[in-house]
Every structure is written in C-alpha cells, then in structure tokens.
C-alpha cells in the first residue's frame, strides 16, 4: 500500500471557510471560521496559515481536495476555482468531494442521503453499493416523492434523514456535516491511496438552477 499523502482540503460551500491538512495518515492542522461572505479573501491566507503551522510549504503537498457541494452558489465557485488554480499551478491532483459523500461516510449500506437546502427544502441522492444511483434532486422534505428510494436495506442518512426517511418508510440515521473539511480530507486520502491519483477536475455540484436571471436589456453594440 502506498504511503499516506500530504493532502490539503478546504470547503466554502456554506457560510464558512474551512480547511484541513493531513500528513502521514493523521490530521496535522485544522481551521474553520463562520462567515456569510468574504471566503474569497480569507481562503488562501487560511491555507497558508495551516501549512505554516505544520512546517510545510505548497511544494510539500501530494494532493488537494475541495468540497463541491451542493451549497451556496458563490461559495462553491470560490472554492472550486481556488482548487483548480492551485492544482494547475502546483501540478498536483485535486479531488472533488461532495457533501453527499461526506454524509454517506457514516454508513456502509445502501442509503438515501438527505441534506438541507435553502427555503426549507432538501437535497437528496440515492446510493447503492457506495455509488450514486441517479441524479441529485431538490425536494420538499415534508412531502417527499415516493419514487426516491425503494428496496431492502435502504436507509436514509444525513442531517435531514429523520425528516425524509420515515415518510418513505425508511430507517433513518441522522448525521451532521460538522468538521466537514477533515472529513473531506479523509475521503480524498482514501481515494488517493486507492489509486485515484489522476481525478477529473472538480466541478460544483449544482442541484437547482441559479436564482440570477439574464439581464433584460440588450448590451450596447460596439
């Protein structure tokens, strides 16, 4: 088995700026600051602070990881853009880890992962044998559609499991997304050590279309 990589992970998918650094199979530095805005200005200084705490520099990293959501549109773009830029500049692989993956890590069976979404809605996605079974969906957790998940052994997991699972007749395991950066780091480490050393470029996981609408006025003709 290959040695555990030195891996830096971060997440700006919600109202926070979070980062974690693992090396030699252990968590060596961690930071998380709650903030509704300002992640773009805070992220890189935070990452540099973590590296400094561990006595490392950018060139010591073997890989990067970033949370790809679902989550806040602007926050996702900040995190993913930073991850892509760093991966390109450092010539290092970068693993995109979704919040579904983080919540799923609490169980080893088939699961319907249920995450909070804006306006009291829920993001859900079914997994079988650890792999996605269909696209992520946005639902009303108080009235979930009956076609979401069926089959023996399926359970609801995630922060909204108790809101969605019982309505579908599924056993529910409520888990949170606290300390999300270390969990992203652990998942990426397992992937990297499992041989996924050339992952696809991370991309934001958008479940719903953006709220912004195109401008109605036509642009001036140059």
TrEMBL record:
Pfam family, any one: TsaD
Domain Gcp-like intervals = 34-108
Q: Which domain of life is it from?
A: Bacteria
Query: Which cellular component appears as one GO term in the record?
Result: cytosol
Q: Where is this region: Disordered?
A: 192-222
- UniProt signal peptide: none
Can you cite a GO biological process for this protein?
A: tRNA threonylcarbamoyladenosine modification
Q: Which NCBIfam families match?
A: T6A_YeaZ
Bias class Low complexity marks the residues at: 208-222
Listed InterPro entries: ATPase_NBD, Gcp-like_dom, T6A_TsaB
Quote the protein name from its UniProt record.
Answer: tRNA threonylcarbamoyl adenosine modification protein YeaZ
